[in-house]
Amino acid sequence: MEEQTTDQGGQGLGGALDLIRRMGEAAQQAADTPAAQVQVPVPVPDVATTVPVVPRPAAEAALQQLLDAAHGPDFLSLLAVFVLAIFVGYYVVWHVTPALHSPLMAVTNAISSVIIVGALIAAGMAVDNVSTVFGFLAVILASVNIFGGFLVTRRMLAMFRKKPR
Amino acid sequence: MDAFTSIMYLIAAICFIMALRGLSSPETARRGNFYGIAGMAIAILTTMFGPQVHNWWWILGGLAIGGAIGFVVAQRIQMTALPQLVAAFHSLVGLAAVFVALAAFYSPEAFGLLIPGTNEIRGVSLIEMSIGAAVGAYTFTGSVIAWGKLQGVISGKPLVFPFQHFVNLGIGLVLILLVVFFSIWEPGILLWLIIILALALGVLMIVPIGGADMPVVISMLNSYSGWAAAGIGFTLHNPLLIITGALVGSSGAILSYIMCKGMNRSFFNVILGGFGGEAAAGQAALADRTVKQGSAEDAAFLMSNASSVIIVPGYGMAVAQAQHALREMADLLKKQGVKVSYAIHPVAGRMPGHMNVLLAEANVPYDEVFELEDINREFAQADVAFVIGANDVTNPAAKTDSSSPIYGMPVLDVEKAKTVLFVKRSLGSGYAGVDNPLFYRDNTMMLFADAKKMVEDIVKAME
User: Fold this and answer.
1) A49 touches chain B (CB under 8 A)
2) Inter-axis angle of helices A12-28 and B164-185, nearest 10
């Protein structure tokens, strides 16, 4: 996932929302709306063109941004990853034997603390500010979970033994 | 994110999948846990050595403090208190998600969330951030309340007040509106407002749920902690967080589903709460019926002469810490050639699989422990069903009495055994507040005592 490749088209839904934020101004100064804002002259579907109230450049820009949102490579590919991972989780977890449901909860709890990744970035910024404090606190909380979660899972699993034969 | 980081994160994600996969059997589970640890180590080291981290002092300090706390707590915790521990851990994930979202909001440049060439955060990032923060905040307070109920700090009784559901629904709608406003206008105050409302909602949603519905609640919060992680993953454009969050989220959802099915209740029925609060209405009418009462010697005699005994443990066994004495009793019986097995109801205990862990702790081999659907047919051939600390999960009214609140719930067919021994403190009803007709049957013998004391007396009588 190359974040640097994010261009206007990659702004996804965010771009659309930024646009909505500016829609008010755009509507007022419809005439002034710079045509440059419309990057690619996309064929505008009838829906937009038949609405006479919205000035045409603004409508086109809005539509363009919405289309970008729908096709934004960033958000959509992440969404695909998300949905596929839910399916993987679904099939893997149904195979977990009911006897091990407690260790399952402990270990999922430990791995969900992978949000420590975000905390590390915040705590490791070059210049300290309020985010450093939030990051530091999050690192503490998540590492309690990581160490505690894996250790308690290990303790539980060590107890499961077969019948001595 | 550079290619090396992406690949390392992918490897970490695969490790996490392998960790869950390992839990399909106790033999592979230990290796699975190792995969989990390896995945986490890869994720942390990759990030620490990555281009986004410039300063290690805060990180190392945080890891040392948190790691030490986690280590000590996990080392000392008693297995009976496992559900509280898991609830407490969930609350930490939730709060950490809130902090990460706040950090991302106040330093968007560090996370690459700015619109290129401007000072504004991308709208979609604002949405993802506020959702991640809201789910995290909800998970935090919800888990704290669940912890309090399990620990006994807060009354396990459902706390209901008028218009509860409307208030909750209202807060939920306001939250959605605020997320929309926040994504458009971006003022920090709205993010704080979203967090505060979600914190309140977490409290309000969990207080009306009774103590024994906690297996569902913890599973649900387990799921939410996953969704919170996924929400933060979307904010930070981090596929590892998204994958892990999705795994955890679906795992928790499946566990909630299994628990609800074990009680024959819908998920909404459980989370709307209020169940088990009202006292049993029909109890007075049944009070004049007679029960057969036995002693430890009677029980020892009956079981020693049996050819097969099925033990049905419940939460009462955990409370009394009777699992070690119980295993001693089972060992004596096995020495005398009695076949001993254990029957576990899906909702026995206070979290999914709790009974299995407690029995394993007492060195009961896991191949003697069976799930409801695997053992239910064998009660008809068993000489003795030894029910210890369980009640509602054996209640035949669930099969016959359509007016019973637990009607339709899958139960263990203990009454089909030749003799049912019931270790219980009194004739009191179980959590569901339902009288158990099993107590008054001819083939039932009640053993009134503390579970641990009774089992120890039985062991003495056998020796």
Assistant:
1) no
2) 70
Q: Both tokens of residue A59?
A: 């409508």
Question: What pLDDT, in 10s, does the model give residues B239-260?
Answer: 999 999 999 999 999 999 998 8
Q: Read off the tokens for B102.
A: 């706040």
For chain A, the average pLDDT equals 72
Longest dimension (CA), chain B: 84
Residues 8-47 of A with CB under 8 A from B: 11-18, 20-21
pTM over 0.90: no
DSSP B275: T
- Give the tokens for residue B278: 């009202």
| Helices and strands of chain A, counted as H and E runs | 7, 0
Structure tokens at B344: 């576990």
Q: Is B392 marked active-site?
A: yes
- The values of phi and psi at residue B369, to 5°, are -105, 125
CB spacing of B247 vs A95 below 8 angstroms: no
Residue B439 has which token pair?
């107590």
ipTM of the predicted structure?
0.88
| Burial category of B177 from C-beta neighbours within 10 Å (exposed 0-12, middle 13-18, buried 19 and up) | exposed
Give dist(CA B206, CA B22) in Å, integer.
32
Question: Which of B435, B413, B416 lies closest to B426, judged by CA?
Answer: B435
**Cα–Cα dist B300/B461, whole Å:** 6
Chain A contact present for B167, CB below 8 A: no
Catalytic annotation, pick one of B213, B298, B367, B392: B392
Nearest of B302, B282, B322, B244 to residue B405 by alpha carbon: B282
Residues 6+ apart with CB under 8 A from B27: none
